[in-house]
């Protein structure tokens, strides 16, 4: 994250710091903070790399990034509204030690929006401290069931071309033999190494990429569900919906409803 480098968050002598920007400018550089960090996407979508995993934050979703965890912001929609909230965290609660991606329920959303009044405030403010202490105290309760929507980046260099192929051609049919030839590995060896490195089979990895890409397209609101299904590689809306439901535990129509109404809570 880098709206501008004039504010050194770790050097501020205050327990919380709020940072809102209408349109963020990112430097795509790995970095870390002493404070924990809550990133909320009010509109648009954002990709974030955290400890060699790529996470997608669709509209009305947030991610909690623990203190001192290495991360960077990746590509995002043309227009994105982000609220970044830094906080000294309670070490007694294990929630703050883990990365959590979650849908932001209406009550928390309103609290985040209210906190915008303190955006980029450098001096201590008692009202800000009291309010944000309450927000972060309740945060673990708002995030009872986190959504682990991410894909891992393998360290094995033999898989580099495979990952590039998936990201460039996720909407095409996978032919494992061709991928094996690309990596100079047998199909069986490729499957074994890939599962060990990413935690997913080749087909499951492709499915995750397709669903993540579809969430990005759903957030933009420019295409219908049918158009999105074919865009990401499914041959029918029904097969796309089944795949979406198996990953997300709710349907594409539910996701659109949340974006449009800003009032329906999704239970993961």
From TrEMBL:
SUPFAM superfamilies documented for this protein: Homeodomain-like, RmlC-like cupins
Superkingdom per UniProt: Bacteria
Keywords: DNA-binding, Transcription, Transcription regulation
Pfam family, one: AraC_binding
Domain named HTH araC/xylS-type: residues: 160-258
Protein name, per record: AraC family transcriptional regulator
Coiled-coil blocks: none
Gene3D superfamilies according to UniProt: Homeodomain-like, Jelly Rolls
PROSITE patterns named in the record: HTH_ARAC_FAMILY_2
GO molecular function terms listed in the Swiss-Prot or TrEMBL record: DNA-binding transcription factor activity; sequence-specific DNA binding
């Amino acid at each position: 994250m880098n709206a501008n480098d004039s504010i050194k968050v770790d050097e501020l002598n205050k327990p919380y710091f709020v940072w809102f920007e209408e349109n963020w400018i990112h430097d795509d550089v790995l970095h870390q903070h002493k404070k924990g960090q809550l990133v909320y996407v009010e509109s648009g979508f954002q990709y974030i790399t955290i400890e060699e995993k790529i996470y997608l934050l669709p509209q009305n979703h947030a991610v909690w990034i623990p203190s001192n965890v290495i991360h960077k912001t990746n590509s995002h929609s043309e227009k994105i509204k982000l609220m970044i909230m830094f906080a000294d965290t309670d070490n007694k609660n294990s929630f703050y030690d883990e990365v959590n991606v979650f849908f932001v329920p209406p009550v928390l959303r309103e609290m985040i929006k209210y906190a915008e009044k303190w955006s980029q405030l450098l001096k201590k403010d008692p009202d800000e401290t009291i309010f944000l202490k309450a927000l972060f105290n309740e945060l673990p309760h708002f995030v009872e069931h986190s959504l682990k929507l991410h894909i891992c980046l393998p360290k094995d260099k033999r898989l580099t071309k495979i990952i590039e192929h998936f990201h460039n051609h996720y909407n095409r049919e996978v032919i494992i033999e061709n991928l094996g030839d690309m990596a100079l590995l047998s199909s069986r060896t490729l499957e074994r190494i890939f599962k060990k490195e990413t935690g997913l089979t080749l087909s499951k990895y492709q499915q995750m990429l397709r669903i993540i890409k579809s969430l990005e397209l759903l957030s933009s609101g420019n295409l219908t569900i049918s158009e999105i299904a074919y865009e990401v590689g499914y041959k029918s809306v029904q097969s796309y919906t089944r795949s979406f439901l198996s990953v997300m535990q709710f349907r594409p129509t539910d996701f659109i409803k949340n974006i449009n109404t800003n009032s329906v809570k999704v239970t993961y």
